[in-house]
Design a protein that fits this description.
Helix 3 runs antiparallel to helix 5. The strands form four sheets. Strands 1, 2, 3, 7 and 10 form a five-stranded mixed sheet that branches. Strands 4, 5, 6, 8 and 9 form a five-stranded antiparallel sheet that branches. This protein is of the alpha+beta class.
Length: 321
């Protein structure tokens, strides 16, 4: 195996980093909600905790400030004095009043009196701000938890792709499977060949993308993914592998990116699973072992043989030859 940089890892992660954005980095702040959802979990939790902590401390300080400016803190033992907020005589008590109000606990010991218009205005501001912060952060956490990325981990791709004959035609094949009993609705598969090339005008394209036909015209790319399926790309005169032979495969350098998309049946959200095959992971003259067997009243899938292949007689010549 020749070690080289992959465009897409086997687990579907794309090895692309964006740098030197300059002023364009401000676009991330214009779409702050998506930016927060895309962050790693540790940063999401940190922002979640810091936002609530800072907001709580600021609002508690504002309640304490009102009590301080009105002189309520110096009239604690005067039973005839009407404070803005009853029983708020220091910062901890102001903080507890804010938490009781924000969380709608309402123990009844601390409350706003009617002779404090600034307290009423601050209470309205606190209610509006709390609703906005809750909607934004809780919505962000909910979207983060409900993302269908984890569903892609139960979609399997074979470790290698194979080239052999099927129905008298040379084909490139790989296998996909679904580990869950819940189905992928409207599942569709696509393949991209990523290979560097030079145009007749002398332009060098380092990561040129070319579509591999896996049954777009016949509807074979629309999958009923109940049991493992073998996806087939027929190598013909329109295929980019038209001149590929067993000997030339050893000197080629390309990457086949496989994209499987579908709707998760249980949530209705769109899920995408990806993998890739480099030239070292394409086996010439191999075929996948069967994994289906008929049991008493049902079909059984043996996933221990999912990645297994065996050699079959295959001409070493290209389709062109």
């Amino acid at each position: 195996h020749r070690g080289r940089q992959r465009f897409v890892d086997k687990n579907g992660r794309c090895n692309v980093q964006h740098g030197n954005l300059g002023g364009e980095s401000s676009r991330y702040l214009s779409d702050l909600f998506t930016t927060l959802v895309d962050l790693k979990w540790r940063w999401n939790l940190l922002i979640f905790l810091l936002t609530y902590t800072v907001a709580w401390l600021v609002m508690a300080s504002m309640w304490w400030g009102i009590a301080y400016l009105r002189g309520d803190l110096h009239q604690v033992h005067d039973n005839t004095y009407s404070p803005c907020v009853a029983n708020v005589y220091n910062f901890p008590s102001a903080f507890l009043f804010f938490i009781e109000t924000e969380a709608t606990i309402g123990y009844g010991h601390r409350y706003i009196t009617e002779r404090c218009p600034e307290g009423i205005v601050l209470f309205l501001f606190q209610s509006l701000l709390g609703s906005i912060v809750d909607a934004f952060l809780i919505g962000c956490m909910f979207i983060k938890m409900s993302q269908p990325k984890k569903r892609a981990e139960t979609l399997m791709f074979s470790h290698e792709a194979v080239i052999s004959q099927r129905d008298g035609k040379l084909c490139l094949m790989f296998r996909v499977g679904n580990l869950r009993n819940s189905h992928m609705v409207s599942a569709q598969i696509r393949c991209k060949l990523i290979k560097s090339r030079q145009t007749p005008e002398g332009e060098f394209l380092p990561l040129d993308q070319c579509e591999l036909d896996v049954g777009f015209g016949t509807g074979a790319d629309q999958l009923f993914l109940v049991s493992p399926l073998t996806i087939c790309h027929e190598i013909n005169s329109k295929s980019p592998f038209f001149c590929l032979s067993q000997r030339s495969l050893r000197s080629e350098q390309f990457e086949i990116v496989v994209i499987l998309e579908g709707i998760v049946e249980t949530t209705g959200m769109t899920c995408q699973a990806r993998t890739s095959y480099t030239e070292d992971e394409v086996l010439w003259g191999h075929r996948f072992l069967p994994v289906m067997s008929l049991e008493d009243g049902f079909f059984r899938v043996d996933y221990s043989q999912f990645h297994a292949t065996f050699e079959v007689p295959t001409p070493p010549y290209s389709v062109k030859e």
